[in-house]
Design goal:
single chain; alpha/beta; Beta Polymerase, domain 2; Rossmann fold; 6-stranded parallel β-sheet; 4-stranded antiparallel β-sheet; about 50% helix; oxidoreductase; NADP binding; GluRdtase_dimer_dom_sf; Shikm_DH/Glu-tRNA_Rdtase
């Protein structure tokens, strides 16, 4: 039994570039899960891949096995410093923060929760989830849902990219519209995501480096395609709304580019500007810039900061509940193993005693029931104190005591080879497991179970 049952690793926007995130990600989340499970000593696996992160988690037989499997995440990177390794508790807390939107470029954004849920289903379908990860991931989803229903963490717009789309929504209908995003950096990526969420019918992403534009187009939930900056003039003719966010030192869009554009709303997020102010005098083109965004962002920024503090407190409380749940489960596993071992021995010894008594003159049903009841009572009283101790050990993080109990009360206890002492190979000496003269426990194959927590049967 290992206190650090989960290990994780992540490459995300907090340290890595788009190229590095792409290099760390596998072809699919399912493929990553299957690759992790193929490593020796890996019992469970989960992977989360979005535009802004590539993350992997495992439940391993040892810390070394976990690290070896997770090295897969950084295999395609030249700079390993962008990989963040996480132990058990850090992994669990980080998963909650991701699902709640606290680790997103836009704090509280909704898209990540849907992506998180889909990743859980993918891992489950690939056979990657067992009781440990299933418990942690379920808790993370629960926190993500609570954050969005009990706080205003996802209200309004706090990033420039999403604010641009909120501004556009005030002035034109985005549902079914054709949208063009010029630039595939962080602001362009956020704007593309917000436009997709607003229900645009077609999304075009233009960038000097086309693969970066393709990356953004592939990450959004919309009918999206990528193109080069050289083709922007043609896209402007078809676009109803345009968001520009490049780092060019010269204008990307001028008056000639929009001459045939018709009614088009252009939101210029670049500093220096991407759009020549003269373009606003061409036809029906309307241009908005950074100054116009202040009314959209000022109110919601303060709201989200306060909501983020609420979510942090929520995570603290849920995290403590999750750790307690793991502790109870590990204690119950040890207690169940202890009772299973006792019942095996009890059943054998009751049967031996009953056979001897019947051979000596027979037993009535009441007498047989009395023998079995006595055996049940003995086991219950003998194990009451160890049961209480194991639950206290779990509450106090005393895993050495629980590990020792698991070794002493192995489920195979008492199933040794015929003619031996009934002790399986490797069982510790000095533990009475034989007949009644040796002080062994008895079992009748009945329904003896550990006592309910907080109640003693003695």
């Amino acid at each position: 039994m290992d206190t650090e049952v989960i290990r994780g690793a992540r490459v995300s926007h907090e340290r890595a570039s788009v190229d590095q995130i792409e290099a760390a990600a596998g072809e699919s989340a399912r493929g990553v899960v299957e690759s992790l499970l193929a490593h020796d000593g890996i019992r469970e696996a989960f992977a989360l891949q979005t535009c802004n992160r590539a993350e992997a988690y495992v439940v391993a037989d040892s810390t070394e096995a976990g690290r070896a499997a997770l090295s897969l995440l950084g295999a395609g990177l030249d700079d390993g410093s962008v990989v963040v390794e996480m132990g058990h508790e850090e992994s669990l807390r980080h998963l909650m923060r991701v699902a709640a939107g606290l680790e997103s470029l836009v704090v509280g954004e909704d898209q990540i929760l849907g992506q998180f849920k889909r990743a859980v289903e993918v891992a489950r379908g690939a056979g990657g989830l067992g009781p440990t990860l299933e418990t942690g991931l379920t808790k993370a989803v629960h926190v993500g849902e609570r954050a969005r229903t009990e706080t205003v963490i996802n209200d309004g717009a706090t990033s420039i990219g999403t604010a641009a789309v909120r501004l556009a929504e005030r002035e034109t209908a985005l549902e079914g519209a054709t949208a063009l995003v010029v630039g595939a950096g962080e602001m362009g990526k956020l704007a593309a995501t917000a436009l997709a969420d607003a229900g645009v019918g077609e999304l075009i992403v233009a960038n000097r480096t086309v693969p970066h534009a393709e990356h953004v187009a592939n990450c959004v939930d919309a009918d999206a395609r990528a193109m080069s900056l050289d083709d922007v003039e043609d896209a402007l003719t078809a676009a109803d709304v345009v968001v520009t966010a490049t780092d060019n030192s010269e204008y990307v869009v001028d008056a000639d580019d929009v001459a045939a554009a018709g009614e088009t709303l252009v939101v210029d997020l670049a500093q220096p500007r991407d759009v020549d102010p003269a373009a606003g005098e061409a036809g029906a083109v309307e241009i908005r810039d950074m100054d116009d965004l202040e009314s959209v962002t000022a109110e919601t920024r303060a709201n989200r900061e306060a909501a983020a503090r609420e979510v942090e407190a929520m995570i603290d409380a849920e995290f403590d509940r999750l750790l307690d749940e793991y502790k109870r489960r590990q204690a119950d596993e040890a207690i169940g193993t202890m009772y299973e071992a006792a019942e095996r021995i009890k059943a054998r010894e009751v049967e031996t005693a009953v056979s001897q008594l019947e051979a000596a003159g027979g037993l009535t049903d009441d007498q047989r029931e009395a023998v079995e009841s006595m055996a049940d009572a003995l086991v219950g009283q003998l194990l009451a104190a160890p049961t209480k101790s194991l639950r206290e050990a779990a509450a106090e993080d005393d895993w050495e005591t629980i590990r020792t109990a698991m070794q002493l009360f192995d489920p195979g206890f008492g199933d040794g080879p015929p003619g031996g002492d009934g002790r399986p190979e490797g069982a510790p000496d000095g533990i009475p497991i034989g007949n009644s003269e040796e002080g062994g426990l008895r079992r009748d194959g009945g329904s003896l179970r550990p006592p309910v927590e907080g109640r003693s049967d003695d």
